[in-house]
Design a protein that fits this description.
By secondary structure, the protein is mostly helical. Helix content is about 80%, strand content about 0%. Helix 1 packs parallel to helix 3.
Length: about 60
């Protein structure tokens, strides 16, 4: 699973193959029945926040 930090960097440097990995890590989180629902939502929220902050930083760097 990708960490939020790696996802942020992927979106910052616009690496399309990483977007797919981010999506797959979210699917993996959802499929894992051992993780309670609130933890899944927390992990997905962190993933989305990381992607958004990466995109914002990419725009600032331009």
């Amino acid at each position: 699973m990708l960490t939020p930090q790696k996802i942020r960097v992927a979106f910052e440097y616009k690496k399309p193959e990483r977007y797919q990995l981010a999506y797959e890590s979210i699917v993996e989180i959802m499929r894992n029945t051992a993780i309670p629902r609130h933890k899944k939502l927390q992990a997905i929220g962190m993933t989305i926040d990381a992607a958004e902050s990466g995109m914002l930083r990419a725009e600032k760097l331009r």
